[in-house]
Design a protein that fits this description.
Strand content: 5-15%
CATH topology of the largest domain: TIM Barrel
Strand order of the largest sheet: 11-12-13-14-15-16-17
Number of strands: 17
Radius of gyration: 26 Å
Length: 586
C-alpha cells in the first residue's frame, strides 16, 4: 500500500465521519490533515512501518493516527472505516467526489432522497428532485449531472501521474533485484509524462527471462495475475492499475522502447516516414523491405534487419534526431527533428527559484522561515512567498493590515538568511467582476503579484473571458496563477477564450503559470504550447503549502517540456537581477 492509497483511505474516513455528523469536528480535521501529510511525504510510509519507524514524529500524525496507518499497511483494512460504515453507506464517498456535492450535501441527498449511489443520484437529478432540496437549486443540480457525465466519459482507470509514480517506483526496485537484468524502463504515457496514466508498460532485457517474470508476478502488491508467459506478463495491482511486462532481445530494445512509448499518432507518422525510405519499423527493429519501397500505409514484407538496439539508432535510420519522449504527441516534433529544429527543453537544473508558495500566514503548514530554509537547501537564488488574499476566508487570507504585519516578520527572517532573496508576494484573488482582492496601495508594494481565480468557475465563457481580461489589465499584475483552475479527474477547467486571454497577457506583460501541483498541472500541455506560440513568458511554480511540496517542481518542468518550453521561455530560470527587471511594474 503506497502513500496515495493511505491518504485516500484517511480522506474517506474523514468524509464518512462528517456525513455521520461526528460530534468532534477536530477529529474530522485530524484525518484530513493526516491525509495531506501522507500524500506529500516523499518516503513510502509502508517502508517506515516495515522498519519500525515512529510515524507520530511526522506532522499531523499522532499516536492513534500512526496506529491507523500501520493497520492499513499491514492488513489493507481500517477498523475505524468498518465502524463508521455501519452508520453511513460507504458508497456515499463516490457522491462526495462529484463536483457540487461534498460531505454535507451527500448527507442531505442520503437522508432526504435515500440516494446512496451515483446512479441513484443521476436518476433523482434527472427527475428534478435534487433541485428542490434546501441548499441545492437548479444550477447545482445541473452541475452534478454534468459532473456525472464527465466521469462516465473519462477513460476507465486513468490515474494521476503522481499516483502512478508511487506505484511504479517500488515495483521497479523490486524487479531490479533480479540477477542478469540489464535494462528496465517504463514506456507508454508514463514515460511521455502525461498528466494521467491508464496502465503501465514495462520493458526489460535479461539474460534469463524466467526469473524476471517470476519476480514480477510474485510482487506483493499484485492483486491478480492476468497473464504470465515466457516473455510477456500482465498483472493488476491492488490499486486497480494494470501493469504489462515485456522482455525483449537486446538488439530490439530501442525499437521496442520507441514502439511502446508511443504515442500512436507519433508512431504512425514514424512508420510512414520509414516506408518512404523502403524501410519498416516495428517493435523488433528497423528492417529493409524485401521488395523495396511499398505504397504508403503498406508495411510490406520485412527483410534484412538493420538496427534496433537503441532509440537513437531507430530515429537515425529515418534521418531524424532522437526525439524526447515528452514531445512524442504528433505536434510537429517529427517535422522539427527532420529540420534539426527540436528545442533544447527546459530541465529541473535550469530552475533558479520558485514564485508561488504559502506559509502559516494563510493556509500553509510550514512557517515562512521554514519555507525559506527549504528553498535555500535546494540551492535556489530566490523565491516568492505568496500567501492568499482575504477573499479566500477558509485559508485565513491576508488583508493589507495583516500583509504589513507579515512583512515585519519577513524583515527578521531575511536578515538571518542573506544568501537567498525572498520576494514579497501575494496570491490575489480575481473577484467575479475582474477586480483584484487587494487595494492598489498594497499591490504597488509587492515584488510579485500572482492573480488567480478561486471561485465562480462556472461563469459563462464570455463573462469568464471578460473577468480575466480585466484582471490582466491591472498595471501591477505579474503572474496569472493556475490559469484554468482545473483539478485533474475532479474539476474541469474554466471556459474562456484562451487565445484572447493569452494575447492580453502578452500585451500587458503578464506571465502565465504552469502550476506544478500534481492535481493541477495547470496549464495543460496544449495550452503551454499555445502560450509558447504566442510568445508568452511562463513561470513554473509549485504552489507549495509545505516544504515537501517544493519537490513537485519536477512535475511542472515535465509539463513545460510537453509544451516545448526551453529555459529561455521560463522566467524562473533567469538570474535574480533579470527577473526583478521583468517583474518591476512600478
Amino acid at each position: 500500500m503506497e502513500n496515495v492509497d493511505i491518504a485516500r483511505a484517511l480522506l474517506d474516513v474523514a468524509d464518512l465521519l462528517e456525513i455521520a455528523g461526528d460530534a468532534n469536528p477536530f477529529r474530522v480535521r485530524a484525518y484530513r490533515n493526516a491525509a495531506r501529510t501522507v500524500e506529500a511525504h516523499t518516503v513510502p510510509l509502508r517502508r517506515m512501518v516495515e522498519e519500525g519507524a515512529d510515524l507520530s514524529e511526522l506532522p499531523a500524525i499522532g499516536a492513534e493516527m500512526a496506529g491507523h496507518i500501520a493497520e492499513l499497511v499491514k492488513t489493507g483494512n481500517l477498523t475505524v472505516m468498518r465502524q463508521v460504515a455501519k452508520k453511513v453507506p460507504r458508497t456515499l464517498i463516490d457522491l462526495v467526489r462529484l463536483p457540487g456535492v461534498g460531505p454535507k450535501r451527500a448527507k442531505r441527498l442520503w437522508l432526504d432522497l435515500d440516494v446512496k449511489t451515483v446512479d441513484q443520484l443521476e436518476r433523482a437529478a434527472r427527475a428534478g428532485k435534487v433541485a428542490g432540496l434546501e441548499g441545492f437549486g437548479e444550477k447545482t443540480q445541473q452541475k452534478i449531472l454534468e459532473g456525472i457525465g464527465r466521469r462516465r466519459e473519462q477513460p476507465i482507470g486513468r490515474v494521476k501521474l503522481s499516483d502512478a509514480d508511487q506505484y511504479v517506483e517500488p515495483l521497479l526496485q523490486h524487479l531490479r533485484a533480479v540477477r542478469g537484468l540489464s535494462h528496465l524502463d517504463v514506456a507508454g504515457s508514463f514515460r511521455r509524462r502525461r498528466e494521467t496514466v491508464g496502465d503501465i508498460d514495462l520493458l526489460a532485457v535479461a539474460s534469463e527471462p524466467g526469473p524476471v517474470m517470476e519476480r514480477f508476478t510474485a510482487y506483493g502488491d499484485v492483486a491478480e495475475v492476468l497473464a504470465s508467459g515466457e516473455t510477456k506478463g500482465s498483472v493488476r495491482l491492488r490499486s486497480g492499475l494494470q501493469v504489462d511486462l515485456r522482455i525483449v532481445a537486446p538488439e530490439s530494445y530501442g525499437a521496442a522502447l520507441v514502439y511502446f512509448t508511443g504515442s500512436k499518432p507519433h508512431n504512425v507518422k514514424l512508420r510512414t516516414r520509414a516506408l518512404e525510405r523502403g524501410l519498416s519499423i516495428s517493435e523488433y527493429g528497423v528492417f529493409e523491405l524485401a521488395g523495396g519501397k511499398r505504397p504508403k500505409g503498406d508495411d510490406g514484407e520485412a527483410g534484412k534487419f538493420l538496427v534496433g538496439a537503441t532509440e537513437v539508432e531507430v530515429y537515425r535510420a529515418v534521418d531524424l534526431a532522437w526525439i524526447p519522449p515528452e514531445l512524442r504527441e504528433d505536434q510537429g516534433e517529427i517535422e522539427a527533428a527532420a529540420k534539426g529544429a527540436l528545442p533544447e527543453l527546459v530541465t529541473l537544473s535550469d530552475i533558479r527559484g520558485d514564485l508561488q508558495m504559502h506559509s502559516t500566514w494563510s493556509d500553509g503548514i510550514d512557517s515562512a522561515e521554514v519555507m525559506l530554509e527549504a528553498c535555500e537547501a535546494k540551492g535556489y537564488e530566490y523565491f516568492a512567498l505568496t500567501d492568499h488574499s482575504k477573499a479566500l476566508a477558509m485559508t485565513r487570507g491576508l488583508d493589507l493590515k495583516r500583509l504589513k504585519e507579515q512583512w515585519s516578520e519577513l524583515d527578521e527572517v531575511t536578515a538571518r538568511h542573506p544568501k537567498i532573496r525572498l520576494l514579497r508576494g501575494m496570491e490575489v484573488d480575481i473577484l467575479a467582476d475582474g477586480t483584484l482582492d487587494l487595494e492598489d496601495e498594497g499591490l504597488a508594494m509587492l515584488d510579485v503579484v500572482v492573480i488567480s481565480v478561486h471561485s465562480r468557475f462556472d461563469l459563462p465563457k464570455a463573462k469568464q473571458t471578460k473577468r480575466l481580461l480585466k484582471a490582466l489589465e491591472h498595471p501591477q499584475a505579474n503572474i496569472l496563477g493556475h490559469p484554468t483552475g482545473r483539478m485533474i479527474n475532479e474539476r474541469e477547467g474554466m471556459q474562456f477564450d484562451v487565445s484572447e486571454v493569452f494575447a492580453c497577457a502578452k500585451q500587458h506583460g503578464v506571465i502565465v503559470e504552469v502550476n506544478a501541483q500534481p492535481h493541477r498541472l495547470d496549464l495543460k500541455d496544449i495550452h503551454v504550447l499555445e502560450a509558447k506560440r504566442q510568445g508568452l513568458r511562463v513561470v513554473i511554480s509549485t504552489d507549495a503549502h509545505r516544504t515537501r511540496e517544493l519537490d513537485f517542481m519536477h512535475y511542472g518542468v515535465e509539463q513545460a517540456r510537453r509544451g516545448w518550453l526551453t529555459s529561455a521561455d521560463v522566467v524562473n530560470s533567469l538570474p535574480l537581477s533579470k527577473l526583478q527587471r521583468l517583474l518591476d511594474k512600478r
